[in-house]
Amino acid sequence: MTPEQRHKNMAAIRSKDTKPELIVRRGLWRRGFRYRLNSPRLPGHPDLVLRKYRTCIFVNGCFWHGHHVDFQSGDLLFTISDSACCKIPHTNRAFWVAKIRRNQERDREEQQRLAAMGWHCITVWECELKPLQREQTLASLAFTLNKIWLDDHAVRRPYPVLGEDDEALDQAAEEVKS
Q: 159: pLDDT confidence band, cut at 50, 70 and 90?
């Protein structure tokens, strides 16, 4: 590809209503979850916001967010190992490495800010939504949301322990028998 063609292709990639995001949205809607899209009030503008569950879901593209890309501590470009789902281009590699690192740092900061505000953050990766893994990923997401809701709404006080010499309990038992 010529640089102009590459630029045109990269510029055409959307940030909203992507195919992975639509897959997650349809899967959650079918399972009865209701959400808001790209909330401008929250840090990072999460893709999906479920207020009932105090949860933000980010649907990340593997390339743009460097899924499983190993950045070694040095700045040498040779020390970067690509992952199975994310290949960093060899042309203009320094630019792409810096861009992906910034994206990862920004993602981490935004999720820390959301956690400080009391929100749960879930990241769904594009490679987890391939046809063979899709249903398992969506079922796992639904399970996680239900667990979050149950944990947030659990009764925190223990049941009272009744002593053996509790006279009121004995009287109530006698009244039931008669």
A: low
Report the alpha-carbon distance of residue 173 to residue 177 in Å, rounded: 6
Q: Cα dihedral sign for 16, 19, 21, 26?
A: positive
DSSP string, 62-115: HHHHTTT-B--SS--GGG-B--SS----STTHHHHHHHHHHHHHHHHHHHHHHH
| Displacement of CA 158 from its chain's centroid (Å) | 32
Res 62: pLDDT: 87
pTM above 0.85, yes or no: no
User: Does an H or E element contain 30, and which?
Assistant: helix 19-30
Contact residues for 110 (Cβ-Cβ < 8 A; gap 6+): 43, 44
